[in-house]
Automatic annotation (TrEMBL):
E.C. no: 2.3.1.234
Organism: Microbulbifer thermotolerans
This protein's encoding gene: tsaD
Binding site for substrate: L134, V135, S136, G137, G138, D167, G180, N277
InterPro entries: ATPase_NBD, Gcp-like_dom, KAE1/TsaD, Peptidase_M22_CS, TsaD
Name assigned to this protein: tRNA N6-adenosine threonylcarbamoyltransferase
Amino acid sequence: MRVLGIETSCDETGVAIYDTGKGLLGHALFSQVDLHAEYGGVVPELASRDHVRKLLPLVREVMRRTDTHPRDLDGIAYTAGPGLVGALMVGACAGRALAYGWGLPAVAVHHMEGHLLAPMLEERPPSFPFVALLVSGGHTQLVDVRGLGDYRLMGESLDDAAGEAFDKAAKMLDLDYPGGPRLAALAEKGDPERFTFPRPMTDRPGLDFSFSGLKTYTLTTVRQYAQADGLPDEQTCADIAAAFQEAVVDTLVIKCRRAIRVSGHKTLVVAGGVSANKLLRTRLESRLREEGAGVYYPRHEFCTDNGAMIAYAGCLRLQAGERSGLAVEVRPRWPM
Ligand code: KG4
Ligand code: ZN
């Protein structure tokens, strides 16, 4: 089975072709980062318009590069949610229309399912069951994954997502959008022991998270050391970034260890934009080894939004006999 996957839920236009026999044949991504940078965050209307401009040329490019003709395809998968409604509409309309025009079945994919299955595209894929830590700009969730579509939410953030907290803390330190990776880079120059930030909700049982207090703590520290230009000196900014990153990573690691113990599974899968964070990776690997559990990630480029994870998830869904109807429906909010 060969499936074309389309991802347009936020600010990346992603297209890929996955083949059950040959694996991932090809993928292409157009990032809108530069477009939104001057606004300090994603502008939904601009995102939709740019997906309209980029999507079909990307589909054409991936088809050409992989030498795929529409008759070689067995289906089309598109992200139907959660995400920005206008952005989702672009991918869903295009995916549904192409499938109709080419006489193929279409399937609507849950964006977070795409993320949690992304490590399966790697050479050494994890197998079910596992615990998934989904950490992106919009989600922080621990999920008990027993099989395709058999997902139980174990815990989630009650307020900001981890990626969102990274982005907001980065803004307080006057770092450009997207802040997460920039804050992580600044943290490498900092002393993680100069400040100790709280580890929210780790002193009580349960697997939920809360990152908004950490944001306030960051702001208070920035103001406390602010100079005439409103920012602390360079080294203090780096020390704050390091303390913030330590606190988020430590909190995530504590809850992952707990989730592994509660579930009895021996595998942790980490996906979503924040899974690109180096400190999170090294900490998780060492702390979960102590629990006898293995940790799996997607390759770096598939940590953030991409078409490959949608093509793959769609392929599994189509194989399981799932089809979406002719009406184009998107779900900006869609519990997994
Ligand atoms: O999964 P993703 O591409 O989009 C969403 O579905 O949200 O995740 C993007 C998020 C952003 O908040 C970004 O700042 C964060 O992932 N991120 C990072 C790093 N790389 C991306 N956060 C911390 N450290 C990183 N290295
Ligand atoms: Zn995402």
